[in-house]
């Protein structure tokens, strides 16, 4: 399946927040989001993303691509870390395919969340546990 096909599938978000912020929220979501998009907060968030992917790779084969061009199967842990660092620095896209699970994770270098497309219940359970271990949350956006 191609990247574009996954983007049309159901998705969940692994985020610093426990649920989607309502459009009519009385809080200051955008100001707080800007704060988290700054250094060193983003570095800390991407460290958590790295830890989730490394732990996930203990259970699943990962095919990883920075930008969607060249793919690497089960890159070394330091290579996964470097790809996330490059994704953040270049504000680019990192794609992670979980072929046996028929799911895809997308990380954008200018977001504080990861998006998981087409996960099975088993994959969601595993990602939920991994996210929780890093102080993050997984939730399904309201459409």
Major sheet: 7 strands, antiparallel
Q: Count the strands? A: 7
Q: How many whole angstroms does the radius of gyration measure?
A: 15 Å
Mean pLDDT: 96
Number of helices: 5
Unreliable sequence segments: none
SSE sequence, one letter per element: HEHHEEHEEEHE
What key attributes describe this structure?
143 residues, alpha+beta, single chain
Please characterize this protein's 3D structure:
This protein has about 140 residues and is of the alpha+beta class. The protein is built from 5 helices and 7 strands, in the order αβααββαβββαβ. A 7-stranded antiparallel beta sheet has the order 3-2-4-5-6-1-7, covered by helices on one side. α3 packs across α5 (about 120-135). The mean pLDDT is about 95.
Short description:
By secondary structure, this protein is an alpha+beta fold. 38% of the residues lie in helices and 21% in strands.
Secondary structure elements and their pairing?
Blueprint: H1 3-6, E1 11-15, H2 29-36, H3 41-56, E2 63-66, E3 72-73, H4 77-90, E4 93-98, E5 103-108, E6 114-117, H5 121-133, E7 137-139
Helix pairs in contact: 3-4, 3-5
